[in-house]
């Protein structure tokens, strides 16, 4: 990682897509993105690392395409989406038992199921272009990976198959 001002940039990744940046915390992200923020239903804070300062200062990974898809999913779902996890720093990802190559280490989201019908939430995620779909008992994991993938977390398959 290379530090430039208040933004941490992965030189390899940013060469490919300059619209994706890692900010050290939500405050820095808000300062840098305030004039271009167009996602009224989501905030940098709810998508930032939730380690509480144990491993980072609340890193925020900005990906405009992901946020566009998240707003689209919200509209398709017909109501608010509660995000239980967004970006995770490497330390927090390991601490919560995340996969070593977890998409959360860049940007992914876990969406609380409560208040939604599972089939409608899954339909909304598919329609919005999310290609990584992890089906759990209490949440739906979403990400935008190159190769589509769908999996069930332990004990959740019967809840999703009707």
The helix count comes to 7
Runs with pLDDT <50, length 5+? 1-18
Topology pattern, helix = H, strand = E: EEHEHHEHEHEHEEEH
As a whole number of angstroms, the C-alpha radius of gyration is 16 Å
Q: What general outline do the C-alpha atoms trace?
A: globular
Q: What structural class should be given to the helix and strand makeup?
A: alpha+beta
Q: Enumerate the strands of the largest sheet in spatial order, edge to edge or round the barrel.
A: 5-6-8-7-9
Major beta sheet, specifics? 5 strands, mixed
Number of distinct beta strands: 9
Oligomer: single chain
Report the end-to-end length measured between terminal Cα atoms. Answer: 45 Å
- Helicity range of the residues? 25-40%
**Averaged pLDDT, please?**
90
Strand content: 15-25%
Question: Would you write up a description of this structure?
Answer:
- With 162 residues, the chain is an alpha+beta fold.
- Helix content is 32%, strand content 21%.
- The protein has 7 helices and 9 strands.
- The strands form 3 sheets. The protein has a 5-stranded mixed beta sheet, with helices on one face. A two-stranded antiparallel ribbon has the order 1-2.
- Helix 4 crosses helix 6.
- The N and C termini lie far apart (45 Å).
- Mean pLDDT is 90; it is low at 1-18.
Quick structural summary:
Strand 7 (132-135) and strand 8 (139-143) form a beta hairpin. The chain starts with a strand and ends with a helix. It has helices spanning 11-16, 26-33, 44-47, 64-77, 90-95, 118-127, 157-160; strands at 2-4, 7-9, 20-23, 60-63, 83-85, 109-112, 132-135, 139-143, 149-152.
């Amino acid at each position: 990682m290379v530090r430039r001002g208040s933004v941490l940039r992965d030189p390899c990744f940013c060469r490919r897509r300059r619209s994706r940046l890692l900010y050290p915390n939500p405050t820095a992200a808000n300062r840098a993105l305030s004039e271009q923020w167009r996602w009224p239903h989501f905030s940098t804070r709810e998508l930032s690392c939730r380690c509480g300062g144990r491993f980072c200062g609340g890193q925020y990974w900005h990906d405009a395409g992901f946020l566009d898809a998240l707003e689209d999913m919200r509209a398709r779902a017909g109501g608010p989406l509660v995000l239980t996890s967004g970006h995770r720093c490497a330390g927090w990802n390991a601490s919560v038992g995340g996969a070593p190559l977890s998409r959360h280490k860049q940007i992914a989201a876990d969406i609380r199921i409560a208040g939604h019908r599972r089939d409608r939430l899954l339909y909304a995620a598919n329609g919005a272009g999310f290609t990584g779909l992890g089906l759990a008992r209490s949440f739906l994991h979403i990400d935008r990976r190159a190769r589509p993938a769908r999996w069930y977390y332990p004990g959740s398959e019967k809840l999703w198959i009707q």
